[in-house]
Structures are given as structure tokens and as C-alpha cells.
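so my prof wants the structure for this chain in the C-alpha cells format not the other one, which i didnt know existed until like an hour ago. anyway here's the sequence
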Amino acid sequence: MAALAIIAAVIVLAAAFVIGLYNGMVKGRNLVEEAWSGVSIQLKRRHDLVPNLVSTVQGYAAHERGVYEAVTQARAASLGASGVQGVAEAETGPPAALGRLAAAAEAHPQLQADANRPRLQDNLAALEDELQMARRYYNGTARDQNNRIQQFPGNIFASAFGFRKVEYFELDSEAEKAAPKVSF
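here's what i got, hopefully its the right format
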């Protein structure tokens, strides 16, 4: 009778342990999804702000059509990307295009007098800071989830429960990692 009670207790404890482990992995997955949502929101804000910036500069530098088309194409590519890796690759375009836009704007001193320009520039700088924070938060939650499913004993159960390694949001080059420089 005592042996049966001990076996039952071990089974209950093992089940409680596996349930706790599974619930921790679900919580981690949900945090990763929440963090990715934050990155997506910041990227959408960037993509909504860029056309306003382009419009402001475009009124003064109409002959720089190729620059505006590059910004628009980079924005479209970023909006059409999916998955962590796809978005990371697509996000290489907007900073480069915005840099070319800044160079075009610098060639037109009358932009210094435009009241919208400083507001847009400040908004873009703040947005890039928020995007960087969202990326860091996402990568932190991805790291925690990866630790949870790759460390013992989670690694034993993770694949059985359908949990896979989470991709980090990484940018490949130093130029891509830097916030777009927009100075007028």
C-alpha cells in the first residue's frame, strides 16, 4: 500500500513538473509573439511617417525623383515582408533610402524654413529609438524562450510539444544597424 502511494506521488509530481514546463514554454511563446507585435507596430509607424517626410522634402526638390522612388520602393518591400528573417532583410532598404533622401534635402536650403521638417525629423528620430527598443525586447524574449526550450529538461519535451527555436531579429551590416541619418 505504501509503495503504491509513493508511485502515485511520483507520478503526480512528474505530471505537475511537465505541466509547469509546458506552461512556461507557452508563456515564453506568447511573450515572443507580443514582442514581435511591438516590432511590427514600430515598423508600421516608420512606414507611415516616411511618406510624410518624403512629401515635405519632395515639394522643394522635385528633380530628385529617383530618391523618392527609392524610398517608396524600400517602404513597399518592407511592408510586404513576412517572418522575422524576411522583415530583417527588407528593413535594410529604408535606412539607405532615407540617407539618400537626407542628402537630397541638404542640397535645398529652403527646407530649413519649413515648419514640418523639424517635427518630422524629431518624430523619425524618436521612432527609430522606439524601434530599437522593440527589437531589443523581442530579441530578449526570443533568447529567454530559446533558453527555455534548449536547456535541460526543457529540451526533452520542447519538440514533443511543438516548440521550435525562435529567430532573432538581426541586421547584417553595420550600416543597416544604424538608425537612418536624416539631417536637413
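also thought this was worth mentioning. The chain has a mean pLDDT of 79.
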